[in-house]
Every structure is written in structure tokens, then in C-alpha cells.
Design goal:
The chain is about 70% helix and about 0% strand. The protein is an all-alpha fold. The protein folds into 2 domains: about 60 residues, no CATH class; about 90 residues, no CATH class. The longest helix has 29 residues.
Length: about 160
């Protein structure tokens, strides 16, 4: 099948969605049709192969930015968070300093989060965060878990000690 034939079929489907009032779906088909523009003389297999090669080249050119977890800014914030232990006020102060530090970009934040999540257990897993907010949530979630664990340990100690 050629791309031109596929475009005719997709255009008919787009028209059906549009006439039914499914504007989001129709817009999706419109974007898909736009990606096929200029490739009408190719077969679908040729188009897919060419697109795959272009995507592979693009991915190869964009290496993930990684920061040494021992960099001064990462070290400073990770140590401050870890030193807060289970103290809510110390943790809040450390988070505030982290959030307001202009030296901390997404790459630095991800490194701080990984240090905070891994250091107490000696872990080496590299967590992948989709956004800064997801990294901040992971740090907060880990603080809450550690505080809960500490509280449970103190209760058990009082009961058994």
C-alpha cells in the first residue's frame, strides 16, 4: 500500500470523526495526515523505515544530560536533606533552600533526589524523573516514609524496652 492510499483512508476517517463532533480525534488524524505530506510516492514500509532511521538519529544526537552526583551544589543540598533526618522543620528548611537555589536546574535536582533516595541504604539505583515536580514529590514521599519508620521503631522500643 502506498502512503497516498493510506492518506485517502485516514482522511475519510478524519471526516467521519469531524462530522460526528469528535473534534479531538479529528485533530489527531489531521496531525497524522500532516506527517504523511510529501511522502505520497512511497510505500508504507519505505515511509516507516525512513521515519525509524530519522528517529534513531535524533535520539542518538540527544544524550541525556547527567551531572556528577558529587558536584558541590548536589552535595550541599543532598547533605542538608539527609541531615534533616526526621525533623519536619529541618526538612522543610532544606526543601525551601533547594527550591530557591538558582544554581539548581532539573539535572541538579534529579541528582539531589537520587542521592537523598539512595544514600541511607547505600543504594545505587538511578531513578528517572519525568519532571522537577516528580523529583520533589519523591523526596517528600521518602521523608514521610522515613519519619513513619522512625516513629514505628520508637513505639516498638518503648513496648519492648
Amino acid at each position: 500500500m502506498s502512503v497516498a492510499e493510506l492518506k485517502r483512508v485516514l482522511e475519510r476517517i478524519r471526516e467521519l470523526y469531524a462530522s460526528a463532533g469528535a473534534n479531538h480525534a479529528a485533530a489527531d488524524f489531521e496531525r497524522l495526515l500532516a506527517t504523511l505530506d510529501g511522502h505520497e510516492d512511497q510505500t508504507i514500509d519505505e515511509f516507516v523505515e525512513q521515519t525509524s532511521e530519522l528517529l534513531a538519529l535524533t535520539a542518538a544526537r540527544k544524550p541525556k544530560k547527567r551531572l556528577d552526583a558529587g558536584s558541590p551544589v548536589v552535595e550541599e543540598h543532598a547533605q542538608r536533606l539527609l541531615a534533616a533526618g526526621v525533623s519536619q522543620s529541618a526538612f522543610n528548611a532544606a526543601m525551601s533552600k533547594l527550591r530557591n537555589d538558582t544554581r539548581v536546574g532539573e539535572v541538579e535536582l534529579f541528582a539531589v533526589a537520587n542521592r537523598y533516595l539512595n544514600d541511607p541504604t547505600g543504594g545505587t539505583f538511578e531513578f528517572e524523573f519525568k519532571s522537577s515536580n516528580s523529583a520533589y514529590r519523591a523526596i517528600k514521599r521518602m521523608f514521610v516514609e522515613r519519619a513513619q519508620d522512625d516513629s514505628k521503631a520508637r513505639i516498638i522500643k518503648r513496648m519492648t524496652g
